[in-house]
Amino acid sequence: MISAPVIREPITGGSGQISGSFTVEGANDLAVLLRAGALPARLDVIEERSVGPGLGKDSIDAGRLASLIGALAVVIFMVLAYGVFGVIANVALIANVTMIFGVLTTIQATLTLPGIAGIVLTIGMAVDANVLIYERIREEVRAGRSPIGAIDAGFSRAMGTILDANVTTLIVALILFFIGTGPVKGFAVTLMIGIFTTVFSAVTISRFLISLWIKRKRVTKLPI
Amino acid sequence: MKLLKIVPEKTNIRFMQWRKVSFTAAILMAIASFVLFFTVGLNFGIDFKGGTLIELKTTDGPANLSQIRSDLNGLGLGEVQVQEFGEPDEVLIRIENQGDDEASQQDVLSKVQGVLAENVEFRRTEIVGPRVSGELAWVGSLAVASSLIMILFYIWFRFEWQFALGAIVTTFNDILLTVALFCILQLDFTLSSIAAVLTIIGYSLNDTVVVYDRIRENLRRYKKMTLVDLLDRSINETLSRTTMTSLTTLLALFSLAIFGGEVIRSFVLAMIFGVVIGTFSSIFLAAPFLILTNLRTNVFDKEEDEAEKGKKTSA
Question: What pLDDT sits at residue B34?
Fold first, then answer.
């Protein structure tokens, strides 16, 4: 036996996909062997992609560093712009990213570079849900509502917008998932997971923390 | 602590009075994009053209590009591009498609390994045969087209046809401009670029939908206001959110562009561009487009009347 790679999907449409850990040379050898092998059908290798361990590690490291710095920048910016509410948005954001990685680990998704880009984009957009809610709360405060009234109205009014905005993004992600292959599919998976965790964390975690904080501090004027 | 407010609390910018300028600019840029696409053209990567891509790292100091180039040209593989990739000891090699035969495509790599065996680490190889590349191009165009159509229907269902049309025209404009960017900078157009274009679609729509949502709400609330005033009001009310979200997304993207490495740079660059034009187009194109469609300010009254009637009959 030369290699025990994984054939990802059944070979139905006349073409199939093999993936596994090879060296760059090994992958090419396998391609040559497949062509020369004693299989009942003629095999053509129509596409071959391999990434060496050095580059794989370098680019994952770079992706990780970039994600960390990006997340940190967003976190600081949110505190500067929304104060206590920004801190709450950040707690929701951290929970959100943890959930994304949890789901990705559970479904054993391969984390590709576009996948990491998908997560970073989600970080940027995850705060959007919170921004929508907070801006709405600011408007309600300006309109003269009490703190609790403003928060209630802010959440319920922003909800419709958040849903519409995320459903349109979800449509794009779904199409990417069904049509795309390889890296594009990886990107679609992270984007989709990100949309669900974003909506969930914005409406449950943020709301819970804000109401907890309001009860504790008995605020009479919202610092927003 | 004094909170950072990038957009002042109350703004009253008359965005609609610039609509003639913004429409003209949008049309001119769209025409320019078409011209660019058909004259300069996209720099298709191997995903859509077929061919071989090899990334390697020399282990004995900076790579000698001209040596590598002449070694490879000796193999008679047709057009060979050799370029530095990020670091002086990292090299990216592109070799053109070897005709219609899948097998000769595969031989390229072993031939290259034959001449460049010494002091070289092969870090990445991608070989795309002529058949797959055609398929990938088809699938990519299909993805973009079908997502536009699906979204058209979703917005039509949630809003009114005028909004659906406005969202699609705006998004299409954003796609055109992104394609123009790829033409001008001659960035490699690969499968990841399709992912970038689709993400831009998602982001641009996200922005447009938020503005439209507010317009719909205001149409229901201010029945007597003229459409121009109402659109201005809606954009001003959502301006703070639009700016904040674009800024946070850009913060994340710039960090990817600076620290994320060479492989995703063109992908991220396209997205940064898309976020910026997506933000502008939702303000200067999506909203004023509604004026062109003769949107009546009582467009949402009918369903409310029906809802009221429904209440009465059920009560």
Answer: 92
Q: What is the token pair recorded at B170? A: 């705006």
Contact B254, B42 (CB under 8 A): no
Domains of chain B in sequence order? 12-43+133-304 (1.20.1640.10), 51-128 (3.30.70.3400)
- CA–chain centroid gap for B307, Å, is 40
CB-based contact, A147 to chain B, within 8 Å: no
Is A142 in the B-facing interface, judged by CB distances under 8 Å? yes
- The type of residue at A107 is I
- CA atoms B228, B234, B240, B244: torsion sign: negative
Round to whole Å and give the CA distance between A105 and A109. 6
pLDDT-flagged residues of chain A (< 70) = 1-46, 51-56, 109-114, 117, 120-121, 181-183, 224
Q: What pLDDT is recorded for position A215? A: 82
Residues from chain B that touch A92, judged by Cβ atoms under 8 A, are: none
A55-217, CATH topology level: Multidrug efflux transporter AcrB transmembrane fold (1.20.1640)
pTM of the shown model = 0.80
**Rg from Cα positions in chain B:** 25
The pLDDT, as a whole number, for residue B79 is 80
Tokens 């054939």 identify what position? A7
Instruction: Give the separation between CA B274 and CA B272, rounded to whole angstroms.
Output: 5
Find out whether B95 and B49 touch, Cβ atoms under 8 Å: no
pLDDT reported for residue B108: 80
Q: Sort strands B43-44 and B188-189 into parallel, antiparallel or unpaired.
A: parallel
Q: B145 vs B72, B136, B154, B161, B168, CA distance in Å?
A: 40, 14, 15, 18, 11
* Residue B146 to residue B142: CA distance in whole angstroms: 6
- B284 and B14 in contact (C-beta within 8 Å)? no
List beta partners, residue B250.
none
* CB atoms B252 and A180 under 8 Å: no
Q: Which of B48, B58, B59 is nearest to B94 (CA)?
A: B48
pLDDT on residue B315: 41
- The list of chain B residues with pLDDT below 50 reads 312-315
Q: Does B263 reach chain A within 8 Å, measured CB to CB?
A: yes
